[in-house]
Amino acid sequence: xxxxxxxxxxxxxxxxxxxxxxxxxxxxxxxxxxxxxxxxxxxxxxxxxxxxxxxxxxxxxxxxxxxxxxxxxxxxxxxxxxxxxxxxxxxxxxxxxxxxxxxxxxxxxxxxxxxxxxxxxxxxxxxxxxxxxxxxxxxxxxxxxxxxxxxxxxxxxxxxxxxxxxxxxxxxxxxxxxxxxxx
Length: 183
Hints:
alpha+beta, eight-stranded antiparallel barrel, 9 strands
């Protein structure tokens, strides 16, 4: 019970202080975000991640802008048995460029997603606050246009993650993985 209360307090403090200060990149351009990205880094203190991070591998994401300025996200990850795990979200634009919100049907949580840093032909650092039943958790992702990412970009990802309260042990660079076939 005490650990649960401490986690809830830490998440609340993060959501109210450090994480609330994560602002989207200036001059965000959704059209330039379009296309295929590799999910190469993943960071969160969420208990499920701590228990499963050793088995996680690189996946892909396809970003498709909608006519209304929202972001359609399609994720795919090849499982060890050759099947593909897929998930899609329609992230709704907000009044702040580079900030989107969506509800995950799969995980039953509300997501406040911010594109924190991006070089459109290289990498994107994405910060998300996930809230379920009043409890918030931070998730940072590092996307790359290729399955390789420079040490400098990895360091930016680590610094973002540590700066948003994620423990160093919970910042993971994902090992390469074969890709799911196109649908």
